[in-house]
From TrEMBL:
Cellular localization per UniProt: Cell outer membrane
Protein name: TonB-dependent receptor
Membrane topology qualifier: Multi-pass membrane protein
SUPFAM superfamilies assigned to the protein according to its UniProt record, in alphabetical order: Porins
Cell inner membrane as UniProt keyword: no
Annotated signal sequence range: none
Organism, as annotated: Lysobacter enzymogenes
Keywords for this protein: Cell outer membrane, Membrane, Receptor, Transmembrane, Transmembrane beta strand, Transport
Length: 853
């Protein structure tokens, strides 16, 4: 038996035996849906005290707007790579990208893409201390690292370390008017607020492939073990180091700082199919590294003035290489600073909340060389393992997304008007945003070698870059064995830059009204921007009925409109191809310009995508439990996808057929969710358990995958799906669309022995794939017949055990073991062919050692 499996099993057994000795049955549970006024669980008997536990509940949100996780829940939850997505697994309104984590790519550390109530992953709003950190440069573009034009990006502009978060709130329905720029939901993180006492911690975490189980189909095993590509990662080592200091001065100034680095090293073969190069590295390393440094300060004068400032600098560096190529290393760089200054001032019945925010997010590439050459193999160019010896990379590109914003919110204390009580809120926002794409220097791609006996051009110059007299080893297309070679074609990607500016503004107002047992919150939000020149009006209305007047039975409803964001990617895509100059030459070795590539993307102004929402909910307190049911229906219109049209412009700038983004996308989603948790933590002697169970049914219909999906008139055609006639654009979505799921999370603390046991169990029904069964005739036309491919159900059990040793002088040392997919189930993701079968990660371990004072 794996030693770590044995260790965690013994630790769990010891904890349960101790609980039995105290006659305390500890049932699995999780984050608590607590009333804002409910008593907090007693903290562990140690100097490392926690904030009161008030996770997760619907009662913190009178209109069932979402879910909040506090600092204690975040610290006790199973962490994995420590990203936001891991924390959001308990939220039944959230679904995840199926391919974010598989048994093939367990060395990756990027945060997973998430969908909230059927919205697209790049149409969520991510906020840290009032500052947005979305990457709108190219969040849904190419995910291929090796692309000569595109630099892959992630929708979360920074990989925020969950250890830096004090509270995490998700607004998934009935979202207040003060939030805009989303079609999915709002994920709002508040950084750690300093405790009163000077304290800190040092933490080391590690995960290794030799500890873990990988599920790989037998026909693909050899290819996996000999992998030279980042899509297959047979080996990896992850290490994280983190240090935190916090405290408060006598005059009330609180300071909290954290420095963290998570690094993953992924050794791969340098050349494909297990072949060895005679003169180049045969094993090369890819690296992923998230570095994060944060500092937060807060102060209050105790008379209504509160000031807080925070800065989070979180760059991500990823090193790749091009397989079968020499000097093919390149680095992808993302992230940057996110900062905010907040000043809240209460005067009389009014509170003024001011937020000044700034972010400068990078998404760039640095290459080892400024060329790409595809030589025929020769005695000088001998590193290739086929008839070719390639060298070089894809060039240097910068992409930046800068935001400077200000937000003002005015809130009034409740006031009586007639028979009702009113809580007024008004606000405005302004953001100056810009983005740019910049190829930093000329990059040459040399192609099509041909035979030669000289490298001296007709003008007398000697070509030392694109010509070699080293004898070629094999006669092939254009080259002759025993002769030299020269390149006949060169694509020059010239230095150049594109930029786009956008000035955005918003006004919003809402009134939270209490009329006896009824609560009503009408609101409106008006947004405008300079990029598209559009002004949008988004009405918001939510209501709640306290059925018996005792707050035990609440019925909620809402009708809302949310407008998303138009991305910088739509504009920055235009004209990049015109940086490409094609050159050719013959035996005289003189390069001649052939053509400058025309632009094949054209920017047209777009309407802003929007979502109309209907939300119904029921929240019930009964027998010590908090029960919540919710239904959310969304109709999404004017969503963006790509289409190809005939170009009627005769300027020569554009190609004869061009791509453009249009508002032809549409989708519909229905989400049914249920959650249940104890109203307050359960206590048996010195054993305290917090718990939450959540369930959902989700149905998403969408006529595209993301904004790079190509529109076709065929999307309007009839199809027969599972025996039913429907339009092709009404087919169920094949991503972020698990119909059923159930989630159970728990944290159990055995206080007398310093043991914490956390669990997360998740069941997910098989998601929907498609297969073609042929065609049939309907109304005189041939239509497709499609059936559903139901992938099998999956379930996983993640568990962690943390044991704390008290030391003198109010210090602690602790050890923590996390096991994900503890039972090592083989959960299938896809199986198009035997060699491309993909499974979820098998059993994997994290070991964490820490010191706290």
């Amino acid at each position: 038996m794996n030693r770590l499996t044995l260790a965690i099993g013994l630790a769990l057994s010891a904890g349960l035996l101790h609980a039995e000795e105290r006659s305390a049955a500890a049932s699995p549970s999780s984050a608590v849906a607590a009333d804002a006024s409910s008593a907090a669980s007693a903290p562990a008997p140690s100097i490392y005290t926690y904030d009161p536990l008030k996770v997760i509940g619907q009662r913190l949100f009178p209109y069932q707007e979402g879910m909040t996780m506090d600092r204690r829940y975040i610290e006790e939850q199973i962490r994995g790579n420590g990203d936001i997505g891991t924390l959001l697994r308990i939220n039944p309104s959230v679904q995840f990208d199926e391919t974010a984590a598989t048994s093939r790519n367990m060395g990756e550390i990027r945060p997973a893409d998430i969908s909230i109530n059927g919205g697209l992953y790049y149409q969520n709003a991510f906020v840290l201390d009032g500052a947005g950190f979305n990457n709108d440069t190219a969040p849904g573009g190419s995910t291929l690292a090796a692309s000569i034009i595109d630099v892959p990006s992630h929708t979360q502009g920074i990989a925020l370390d969950a250890s830096q978060i004090g509270t995490l709130t998700v607004y998934d329905s009935n979202v207040p008017a003060s939030y805009g720029g989303f079609n999915g939901g709002v994920v709002e993180a508040e950084s750690r607020r300093a405790r009163d006492a000077f304290s800190g911690s040092v933490v080391m975490r590690m995960q290794r492939s030799v500890w873990n189980e990988m599920h790989i189909a037998a026909p693909a095993l050899q290819n996996f073990e000999e992998s030279s590509t980042e899509s297959l990662q047979p080996r990896y080592d992850k290490y994280q180091l983190r240090a935190t200091l916090e405290g408060r001065t006598r005059n009330g100034l609180g300071l909290s700082g954290t420095v963290s680095r998570l690094r993953s090293v992924i050794p791969l073969r340098g050349y494909t199919s297990g072949r060895n190069s005679v003169s180049d590295e045969n094993e090369k390393e890819q690296v992923r590294e998230n570095t994060s440094a944060s500092l937060r300060a807060d102060w209050s004068d105790g008379e209504g003035l509160e000031v807080s400032a925070s800065v989070n600098y979180a760059p991500t560096d990823e090193r790749y290489f091009i397989a079968n190529a020499k000097n093919g290393y390149y680095d992808l760089e993302q992230g940057g600073p996110v900062a905010s200054l907040r000043v809240n001032y209460q005067r009389g019945d009014w509170t003024w909340r001011n937020t000044l925010s700034y972010s400068d997010l990078d998404s760039s590439r640095r290459s080892q060389t400024d060329y790409w050459k595809s030589w025929a193999r020769s005695s000088e160019m001998d590193w290739g393992v086929t008839t070719l010896s390639a060298e070089g990379s894809w060039g240097n590109i910068d992409q930046r997304n800068r935001n400077l914003g200000y937000k003002l919110v005015l809130e009034r204390e409740p006031m009586r008007l007639g028979i009702g009580e009113h809580r007024l809120q008004f606000g405005l926002e302004y953001r100056d945003r810009s983005a740019d794409y910049h190829r930093l220097n000329d990059h040459s791609s040399y192609l099509n070698p041909a035979a030669t006996r000289t490298c001296t051009a007709s003008d007398g110059t000697i070509d030392r870059d694109g010509c070699s007299l080293s004898p070629v080893e094999t006669t092939a297309s254009g080259v002759i064995k025993g002769r030299g070679q020269y390149f006949t074609r060169r694509n020059v990607y010239r230095e150049g830059a594109f930029n786009v500016d956008n000035r955005e503004w918003a006004l919003f107002a809402q009134d939270d009204i209490r009329l006896g047992r009824w609560s009503l919150r009408p609101g409106v939000r008006v947004d405008g921007d300079s990029l598209m020149g559009r002004t949008t009006v988004a009405p918001r209305l939510a209501t709640s009925w306290d059925v018996f007047g005792d707050r035990d039975t609440l019925l909620t409803a809402g009708v809302n409109r949310y407008y998303g964001r138009n991305l910088f990617a739509y504009k920055l895509r235009e004209g990049r191809e015109r940086l490409q100059l094609e050159q050719r030459r013959g035996a005289d070795l003189i390069w001649r310009d052939v053509r400058t590539s025309p632009a094949d993307y054209r920017f047209d102004r777009l309407r802003v995508p929007y979502s109309d929402e209907l939300a119904l909910g029921w929240n019930q307190r009964w027998a010590g439990l908090d029960l919540s049911l919710k239904y959310v229906r969304r109709e999404n219109r004017d969503e963006v996808l790509r289409e190809t049209i005939l170009n009627l412009d005769d300027s020569g700038f554009y190609d004869t057929r061009v791509n453009r983004y249009s508002n032809r996308g549409r989708s519909r989603s229905q989400t049914y969710t249920a959650s249940v948790s104890p109203s307050r933590p359960l206590r048996w002697g010195n054993v305290v358990t917090s718990a939450e169970a959540a369930f959902d049914y989700t149905d998403v219909r969408r006529n595209y995958s993301d904004y790079e999906t190509a529109y076709s008139e065929a999307l309007e055609d009839w199809v027969r799906y599972q025996g039913k006639l429907m339009r092709a654009n009404e087919l169920p979505a094949t991503s972020f669309n698990r119909p059923w799921s159930a989630r159970l999370a728990s944290q159990t603390r055995f206080e007398s022995i310093g043991l914490l046991w956390s669990n997360f169990l998740r069941y997910r029904s098989g998601y929907r794939g498609r297969q073609s069964l042929g065609r049939e005739v309907f109304e005189g036309k041939s239509i497709s017949v499609i059936d559903e491919v139901a992938y099998p159900d999956t379930w996983t059990w993640d568990s962690s055990v943390e044991w704390t040793l008290r030391l003198p002088h109010e210090q602690q040392a602790y050890a923590r073991v996390e096991a994900q997919n503890l039972t090592n189930r083989s959960n299938l993701i896809s199986s198009a062919t035997a060699t491309t079968t993909v499974y979820e990660p098998g059993r994997s371990y994290w070991l964490e050692l820490g010191y706290r004072f």
